[in-house]
Fold this sequence. Notes:
The chain has about 220 residues and is mostly beta strands. Helices cover about 15% and strands about 40% of the residues.
Amino acid sequence: MSMIKLVNKTAQKGIVDPKIIIGGIVALAVIIILATGKFNFSASRNDQPSSESATTESQSEPTQAPSAPKSYNNGQYKFSLEYPGEWDYKEAQGQYVTAFFSPLESSSDRYREFLGVKVVSTASKPDITLQQATDLWEEQTVAASKDKNFQITDRKSSTIAGNEARDLFFTVDIEGIAAKGFAKITMANENIYIFQYFAETDKYEKFLPDLESIISSVSL
């Protein structure tokens, strides 16, 4: 039986530095196996985005003033976007094609909010619908993460790059850290694209305008 799996490129090696990437702890690595109806949730630290060695011009101190947005293009998975100049990114983060990290707020900042991008090919199951993919994401993620108090708080329909999308908002508690975020799911180019935002609860609103700017710039 053919299966559709979330792209799982090898994560870059490196030791997690708790001073700057505790945000990686709350990155919930999700694997969709659409052809068999399976959706596996994993909190393995090996699959978490690590901001260590992320592309940045000032990693030890926060940027003092806004800078011009930067462009990101992924030819392999056929998407591009712009991200704030103060943010940085790292490729091949566990189940993420790439992940974008918020700037350090101070030299002692422990947590970096991030947006991870996942891509799922639909080539082996071309009839899968957006709603089916979204339902699988919700059903299996909730069932597999009860011990982390994962809860869907809202669901909305929207668009991204002119394509129909589904937005699922959630809260989660990982290793004592209260976090919240959203997953925006859409389909294009024979792929399912999942944009996932994770933030410490009290920082969610602070970085939300940056996330909205990134999402609005996406081209598929």
